[in-house]
């Protein structure tokens, strides 16, 4: 997606350890016009899929996911990173965070992820794929069907696509970063 690539090159910042900061337009300050176009692109790429619900994970996935849900007139559910005491029928799994270098438990209510659901999962980044594999575990526990996963940015050098491909997940990324070496952003 050309508009997104240009924006990453213009406003993205590299940090040591293969981290790309996009906090001026996606992760902290958000550009709704760009995120709307991002959502339209996801919808175009998954136009052949039979989707009835959008799932994301807090916090950064929520904005693009709600744009997709708004345009498609579909409900959006976000996976929580803290376990609320009041959640009914909780499904949970453990995810390793690459940016924070720790394990954490994520959860979702089985009330909102059911065997009737055909899911499009949306998130900001695909890095090593740990978050995505955790999401897949929750979807499998719930009996829902995963139709595909859409990422705004994929850091291809961290190879998160591989474990997802191995289990047959359809992956679409709107900007693929081949390298952040020497703090230079190389986009495919
Ligand atoms: P993974 O589980 O694929 O290793 O990492 C995915 C999650 O880590 C994403 O949901 C995202 O929040 C965070 N993440 C991974 N790499 C980056 C990065 O380079 N920049 C930012 N801002 N977040 C990242």
Q: Structural class of the secondary structure composition? A: alpha/beta
Biggest β-sheet description = 6 strands, mixed
Straight-line distance between termini = 11 Å
Count of strand segments? 10
Strand content: 25-35%
Percent range of helical residues: 25-40%
Sum up the overall morphology in one term: globular
What small molecules does the structure contain? guanosine-5'-monophosphate
Question: In a nutshell, what does this entry contain?
Answer:
The chain is of the alpha/beta class.
How would you sum up this structure, described in words?
The protein has helices at 2-11, 32-45, 62-72, 130-142, 161-166, and strands spanning 13-15, 19-21, 53-57, 76-79, 90-97, 102-109, 118-126, 145-155, 171-179, 186-187. With 188 residues, the protein is α/β, with parallel strands linked by helices. The strands form three sheets. It has a six-stranded mixed β-sheet. The protein has five helices and ten strands; from the N terminus they run αββαβαββββαβαββ. Bound molecules: guanosine-5'-monophosphate. Residues 19-21, 27, 60, 98-99, 123-132, 155, 160 line the site of guanosine-5'-monophosphate (5GP).
């Amino acid at each position: 997606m050309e508009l997104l690539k240009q924006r990453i090159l213009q406003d993205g910042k590299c940090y040591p350890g293969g981290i790309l900061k996009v906090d001026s337009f996606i992760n902290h300050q958000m550009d709704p016009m760009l995120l709307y176009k991002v959502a339209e692109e996801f919808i175009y790429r998954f136009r052949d899929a039979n989707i009835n619900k959008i799932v994301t994970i807090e916090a950064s996935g929520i904005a693009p996911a709600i744009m997709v849900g708004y345009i498609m007139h579909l409900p959006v559910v976000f996976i929580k990173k803290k376990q609320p005491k009041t959640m009914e029928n909780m499904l949970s799994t453990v995810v390793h965070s690459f940016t924070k270098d720790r394990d954490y438990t994520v959860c979702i209510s089985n009330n909102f992820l059911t065997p009737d659901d055909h899911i499009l999962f949306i998130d900001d980044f695909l890095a090593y794929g740990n978050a995505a594999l955790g999401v897949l575990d929750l979807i499998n526990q719930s009996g829902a069907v995963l139709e595909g996963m859409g990422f705004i940015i994929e850091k291809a050098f961290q190879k998160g696509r591989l474990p997802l491909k191995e289990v047959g997940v359809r992956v679409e990324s709107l900007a693929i970063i081949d390298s952040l070496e020497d703090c230079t952003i190389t986009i495919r």
